[in-house]
Specification:
By secondary structure, the protein is of the alpha/beta class. The protein has two domains: 2-108, no CATH class; 134-387, Vaccinia Virus protein VP39 (Rossmann fold). The protein has twelve helices and 14 strands. Strand 3 and strand 4 form a beta hairpin. The structure holds S-adenosylmethionine (SAM). S-adenosylmethionine binds at residues 185-187, 190-191, 212-215, 240-241, 256-259, 262, 265, 283.
């Protein structure tokens, strides 16, 4: 822990710290806030450290002196968080703490080199505005100077929100070896490019990413762009999720807005590969709409609009439940706020390998209540069917 204290002291006292994010709460700790972000601010011409604590439903702030900032940040590393990213002028530091609290500090070339000390500046995005970025320029989100195209601002925010989610997943991956990632239903691949940029160009991880989609023209376009950008470990393949073969192991499986039961196919592949991390944002679920029924729910089922939303929620609850049954610690999060897309449920699974018996019971009762036979059972196959017998 000495090394961490030293790192905090030098970056804070010597004013090298540009931005820091602490995340991933340790097991067995009483959870309060889930993330801490630190940045320097100027208040009445005095430099302070702005601490932003992110809770489930609120955010709080405080501005601290050097000594207070070091003290609190160090205390949280020692007892509360498992991971921190420190972006300093000289380097990016990633702090990882093992289950036993043993620290590891990875040092990479600096990815940021500018300060913004204004107190109420706009949201601190992982990919910053006004910093030229070749892939966002190529995708038409930014111009060559790094200014975000006004009409594409939603996309810019969505990409950054997505990268925050990816940054939370990193400690769940074994970054000591090459990480294999697959993005199913990648489409035009804004998010695939963003993920590559973050993992490989910003964090300098050894990662290989494959984007898969049904559309040949889109795949050609994405491969051309990856070549132009010299993203040598990013490849796009045309094909159907269900029949995708050729990889024995994948560490992280992503599917964002893959249509209808394509999400189930993607979850099934991830389970088959024993992926450490699964991210799925489902889209246009039609599967259960016609099958679900329970007379007690008549007030909801009789209105098409309500029934449609209900059937989506049932489908996603079932998917999350299946991941728990298959040994994943599963959360359902908001992907991006409602005003930007109604398809905003993100199902996230971190592999624990532990079979959750209460999840099996819940699953059976839920299925029975709705009188449904979800497609995911067929997609995952025997391993799931045997567990829920
Ligand atoms: C709505 S787009 C989402 C694109 C991208 N993931 C995003 O979030 O911007 C859905 C994509 O999934 C692809 N897709 C749907 N079903 C698929 C399947 N079974 N196998 C591969 N791709 C599929 C479609 O071709 C389409 O490009």
């Amino acid at each position: 822990m000495e090394q961490i204290l030293k790192l905090l002291e030098t970056t804070i006292k010597e004013e090298k710290l540009i931005y820091a994010v602490f995340s991933n709460i340790r097991k067995g700790v009483d959870k309060e806030f889930k993330k801490l972000k630190i940045k320097p601010v100027l208040i009445k011409n005095e430099r302070k450290w702005h601490f932003e604590y992110e809770y489930d439903t609120k955010v709080t702030h405080e501005n601290l002196s050097d000594v207070e900032a070091i003290d609190i940040a160090y205390g949280l590393c020692a007892t509360y968080f498992k991971q921190a990213m420190i972006y300093a002028l000289d380097a990016d530091y990633q702090i990882l703490l093992s289950k036993k609290g043993i620290p590891k500090i990875l040092k990479k070339a600096p990815s940021r080199n500018t300060f913004d000390l204004s107190h109420n500046r706009k949201k601190n995005y992982i990919i910053e505005e006004n910093v030229p970025n070749p892939f966002l320029h190529a995708l038409g989100v930014m111009n060559e100077k790094g200014q975000v195209n006004k009409k594409r601002y939603d996309k810019f925010r969505q990409l950054n929100r997505y990268l925050e989610i990816i940054s939370d997943c990193v400690p769940h991956l074994d970054t000591t070896k090459k990480i294999q990632v697959v993005d199913f239903g990648c489409g035009k691949a804004y998010l695939t490019f963003a993920m590559y940029y973050y993992l490989v160009e910003m964090l300098h991880l050894d990662a290989d990413i494959i984007g898969l989609d049904l559309k040949t023209d889109v795949i050609e376009y994405c491969n051309d762009l990856a070549n132009k950008l010299k993203y040598k470990n990013l490849h796009f393949v045309q094909g159907d999720i269900k029949s995708f073969a050729g990889l024995n192991h994948v560490d992280m499986v992503v599917s964002l807005h893959a249509c209808d039961t394509a999400t189930d196919e993607s979850l099934a592949k991830a389970i088959e590969w024993d992926a450490d991390v699964i991210l799925a944002v489902p889209c246009c679920q039609h599967e259960l709409f016609k099958k679900m029924h329970n007379p007690i729910m008549a007030s909801m089922e009789k209105h098409g609009l309500i029934k449609e939303r209900l059937s989506s929620l049932i489908t996603d609850s079932i998917r999350a439940n299946v991941l728990e049954i298959m040994g994943y610690n599963t959360q359902v999060l908001e992907f991006i706020d409602m005003e930007h897309t109604p398809k905003n449920i993100l199902i996230r699974g971190y592999k624990t390998g532990q079979i959750n018996e209460s999840a099996i019971k819940e699953y059976k009762e839920f299925k029975h209540f709705w009188h449904v036979q979800p497609y995911i059972e067929q997609a995952v196959g025997k391993t799931l069917q045997e567990r829920i017998k």
